[in-house]
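Fill in residues.
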């Protein structure tokens, strides 16, 4: 490599624009700076420092460290089309000159990069002047600077760690960059590079930022890069710091400040001791206790002889020592307090987690307890029903009427109609078509086939309230609702043909007899003439003491139930002909056989009267809830009465001996409605189902 004496350097600051494919495509000259350097300098350039000089190979252009004297200036400014003017000479010449552009671009390795290991974005930029030019293999191909924290990527190439994180792809093979492992070998080579002490370097006067030179009047020491121990250097470099210590932290040329007064002129470490002997800003050693004396070392001795604090210096020393001890104790207590706070925080978090777990388990326990309570209550109800069943069987055995128990007459559940979205409150059978109608809280009436398909044939919509009552005459269905209306339906077409507002309160019950429709509500019964699909009010029966929930027509008589009263009306004259007094609260259901009048009450009992004499002959017990419905099944040899109750059960009663012969338990809610057709029993319940029972 040939040596070149650098006598003049003309650096022109320019702004460059870059084309992605062609590199530098334009350069705008902004100013020219002429450097007149009067003392030896060390400058380091490489061919990568000036891309515009790429046409020169390494044999034509090379600069090595050379101490020269520079003076003068260039004869003319550089033109825009100038790339470089290089005057080459042998080592014996001293008048050679080089005029180059100063290239400032983040993507191009500039003159600044040759003297700084760190990018302009680093928090601290340390002076970095190499004694010899580093090997080109130690330069990153992305930032074109000496590697900083070199890492090997997935493509096998080495780059700076920061470059890997910021670059989109490898500059060599365009593959995506991902760091794999630190390149310890390269880091160790960089750590062995020789650099000048930072206190022996200074910026080139008037030069661009980052261009440094060796200051002959300052520290001449050179160190290995790995010996520089600063936070700004990469961890890989400090890993190889030598054991002989960090020269720069103890350098005699290190700038220091006078400890007596910050207004004293700047000093270096080697001059500090001499300065302190002459400094006129020395404070009294007792200044922290209030002494305001300031002087030099000579006047300080005189002052101490008269200083009022000198006589109590032992006391002050002990006080200061004690204060130091107290501060140490206080610091220790603060550490302990911080530890306790941290422990308390962890305990609070643990306690909160424990509370959450306990709350969750308590919720589960309460839920299980509620479920067990419900199961226990249901078990008690079932046990009561079974006990009553056993009691009735024993009573039948004691009475010698065992023959009345016919195994062939045991009723079993044969199926369930499912479809309603709410409790079923009423049932009605159309014998001519084997159809069953059911009214529900879902405001609909469902039509069920009870002969062939056993499926819902149609859903009738029309009411705005709960459907509470149903009855049939001929081919017409009448429905009463909590919306105060009665709707007339044509069974053949299952279409609504008429609707009237029948009462000012819910219509609780309906019954048809002698072409008359009777509707029961609060303290009133209204009688309607049926004229085709038209309903015309004929008469209103009053003098009733409560809700009329039960109406039955039989043998030209109308039986109505209200609070502890059954009234018997003559259908032809519409006059009350008899009143039966009862007990057990309101009458919810009535049934009439050839020999008896039967009613179910709110207080769980069933009362039986002799039909002709109107005398009460028996009170049937067994249910543990309100008796909502009664139905009669008349057979040639016997008559059976079915009762439905709030206790979810149905009971079968033999009217020959007034005993319960069977209890039916299949519903999951209160049983509210009954209907009989062709030897089959239909029961509707609050569980939204209709069950079919046969013997």
């Amino acid at each position: 490599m040939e040596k070149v004496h650098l006598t003049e350097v003309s650096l022109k600051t320019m702004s460059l624009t870059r084309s992605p494919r062609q590199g530098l495509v334009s350069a705008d000259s902004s100013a020219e700076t002429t450097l007149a350097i009067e003392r030896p300098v060390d400058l380091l350039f490489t061919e990568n420092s000036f891309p515009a000089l790429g046409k020169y190979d390494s044999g034509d252009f090379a600069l090595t460290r050379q101490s020269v004297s520079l003076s003068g200036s260039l004869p003319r400014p550089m033109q825009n089309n100038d790339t470089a003017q290089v005057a080459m000479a042998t080592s014996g010449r001293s008048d050679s000159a080089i005029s180059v552009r100063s290239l400032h671009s983040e993507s191009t390795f500039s003159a600044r990069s040759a003297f700084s290991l760190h990018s302009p974005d680093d928090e601290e930029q340390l002076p970095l002047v190499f004694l010899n030019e580093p090997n080109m293999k130690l330069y990153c191909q992305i930032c074109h600077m000496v590697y900083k924290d070199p890492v090997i990527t997935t493509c096998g190439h080495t780059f700076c760690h920061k470059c890997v994180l910021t670059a989109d792809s490898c500059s060599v093979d365009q593959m995506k960059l991902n760091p794999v492992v630190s390149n310890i070998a390269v880091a160790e080579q960089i750590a062995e590079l020789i650099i000048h002490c930072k206190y022996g370097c200074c910026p080139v006067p008037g030069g661009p930022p980052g261009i440094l030179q060796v200051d002959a009047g300052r520290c001449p020491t050179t160190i290995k890069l790995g010996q520089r121990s600063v936070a700004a250097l990469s961890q890989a470099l400090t890993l190889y710091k030598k054991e002989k210590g960090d020269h720069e932290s103890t350098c005699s040329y290190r700038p220091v400040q006078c400890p007596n007064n910050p207004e004293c002129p700047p000093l270096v470490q080697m001059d500090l001791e001499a300065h302190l002997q002459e400094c006129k800003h020395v404070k009294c050693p007792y200044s922290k206790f209030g002494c305001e004396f300031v002087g030099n070392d000579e006047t300080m001795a005189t002052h101490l002889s008269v200083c009022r604090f000198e006589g109590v210096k032992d006391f002050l020393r002990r006080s200061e020592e004690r204060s130091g001890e107290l501060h140490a104790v206080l610091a220790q207590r603060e550490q302990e307090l911080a530890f306790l706070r941290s422990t308390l925080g962890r305990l609070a978090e643990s306690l909160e987690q424990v509370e959450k777990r306990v709350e969750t388990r308590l919720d589960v326990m309460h839920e299980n307890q509620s479920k067990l309570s419900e199961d226990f209550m249901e078990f008690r109800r079932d046990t009561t029903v079974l006990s009553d069943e056993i009691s009735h069987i024993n009573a039948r055995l004691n009475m010698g009427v065992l023959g009345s128990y016919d195994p062939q007459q045991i009723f079993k559940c044969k199926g369930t109609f499912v479809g309603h979205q709410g409790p079923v409150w009423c049932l009605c059978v159309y014998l001519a078509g084997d159809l069953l109608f059911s009214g529900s809280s879902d405001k609909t009436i469902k039509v069920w086939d009870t002969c062939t398909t056993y499926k819902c044939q149609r859903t009738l919509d029309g009411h705005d309230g709960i459907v509470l009552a149903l009855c049939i005459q001929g081919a017409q269905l009448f429905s009463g609702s909590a919306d105060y209306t009665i709707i007339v339906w044509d069974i053949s077409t299952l279409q609504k043909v008429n609707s009237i507002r029948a009462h000012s309160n819910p219509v609780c019950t309906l019954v048809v007899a002698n072409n008359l429709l009777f509707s029961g509500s609060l303290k009133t019964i209204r009688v309607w003439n049926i004229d085709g699909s038209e309903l015309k009010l004929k008469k209103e029966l009053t003098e009733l003491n409560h809700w009329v929930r039960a109406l039955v027509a039989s043998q030209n008589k109308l039986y109505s139930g209200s609070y502890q009263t059954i009234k018997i009306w003559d259908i032809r004259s519409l006059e009350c002909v008899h009143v039966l007094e009862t007990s057990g609260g309101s009458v919810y259901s009535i049934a009439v056989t050839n020999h008896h009048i039967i009613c179910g009450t709110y207080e769980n009992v069933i009362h039986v009267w002799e039909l002709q004499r109107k005398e009460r002959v028996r009170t049937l017990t067994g249910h543990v809830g309100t008796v909502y419905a009664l139905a009669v099944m008349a057979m040639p040899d016997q008559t059976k009465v079915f009762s439905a109750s709030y206790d979810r059960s149905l009971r079968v009663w033999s009217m020959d001996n007034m005993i319960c012969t069977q209890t039916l338990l299949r519903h999951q809610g209160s049983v509210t409605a009954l209907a009989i057709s062709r030897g089959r029993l239909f029961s509707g319940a609050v569980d939204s189902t209709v069950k079919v029972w046969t013997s």
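The chain has a mean pLDDT of 78.
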